[in-house]
Amino acid sequence: MHDKPLSKLAGHLLRRLPGASHPARHRAGPDRFGLEEEKVLRFTEDRLDPAEEGRLAEEVAAVLPLGWSLSPRAKERLHAVTEHLGGERRLLEWLDRHPGLPRLTARLVALMGILDRYSDDAEVVEALRASRAEDPFPAGLENVLPPGTSEETLSDVSYRIDELLFERQTQDATRLALATTDWLRDATRSSAPSSSGISEMRELMTHLRKDIGEADAAA
Questions:
Q1: CA distances from 189 to 3, 149, 175, 177, 186 (A)
Q2: Helices 72-85 and 88-96 sit at what angle, rounded to 10 degrees?
Q3: Residue 77, burial from CB neighbour count under 10 angstroms (0-12, 13-18, 19+)
Q4: Which residue, 176, 106, 166, is CA-closest to 142?
Q5: Model's pTM, two decimal places?
Q6: Is the pLDDT of residue 26 over 50?
Q7: Interatomic CA distance for residues 17 and 219, integer angstroms
Q8: Of 97, 156, 212, 215, which is most buried, counting CB atoms within 10 Å of its CB?
Q9: What is the crossing angle of helices 170-189 and 153-166, to 10°?
Q10: How far does CA 13 lie from the centroid of its chain?
């Protein structure tokens, strides 16, 4: 994965990784997934072989979207893995090194963090508003975007991707993510690059469109 999308998330991953970015809409769900205690312990002691580490990455990718619905014990094990790797950003980088669900999950989480970050950027919001004046409901976003565009629009899309991952609808989450990157890339491309936010958004969406597409194809 390109380092740049992850580098843009510094300072934002802490609120993203434990659960949804909209506290008022936290979902409750059964803790059906967990991390094997022995495997986590051996990982933190650097005693897992590559095959076992790959299986642990699959388990982490499965529990990551469950956020605050996890049991205290599951949260402790996820925290132990995260701390051993060196923090939230390193956790995503570690997941990204493992093909399949881990890599795809890492890249979807990266996109959600960027959507949250630029949600209230005035020039980005204005670019999206201008884009929707020409095409109110871009392909793939017809049932996701509200009629109007505001500072909540991107965070609402982020939440919907998060929600689909929580519901184990990974392919639907991926399709929505790809449609979102297409829309944002095109909207910022047609807008005058009058701010660093516009230019950065265009560059990040170009990278993430490629990264998520590659991860999806290999999953």
A1: 22, 18, 21, 18, 5
A2: 80
A3: buried
A4: 176
A5: 0.86
A6: no
A7: 21
A8: 212
A9: 160
A10: 10
Listed in sequence order, the residues at least 6 apart from 43 whose beta carbon sits closer than 8 Å to its beta carbon are 53, 56, 81, 84
Q: What does 137-180 look like in DSSP terms, one character per residue?
A: S-TT-TTTS-SS--TTHHHHHHHHHHHHHHTT-HHHHHHHHHHH
- Find tokens 């509200």 and name the residue: 146
Residue with tokens 């990974």: 170
Query: Given the structure tokens 């990455």, which residue do they identify?
Result: 57
d(Cα 89, Cα 208) in Å, to the nearest integer? 16
Read off the amino acid at residue 165.
L
Give the span between the Cα atoms of 31 and 16, in whole angstroms. Answer: 19
Q: Which element (helix H / strand E) includes 217?
A: helix 196-218
Q: 125-170 pLDDT, tens per residue? A: 999 999 999 999 999 999 999 889 999 999 999 999 999 999 999 9
Residue 4 has a pLDDT of 59
Q: What is the DSSP letter of 48?
A: -
Task: Please answer whether residues 16 and 219 qualify as being in contact, where contact means their C-beta atoms are separated by less than 8 angstroms.
Answer: no
**How far apart are the C-alpha atoms of 57 and 14, rounded to whole Å?**
19
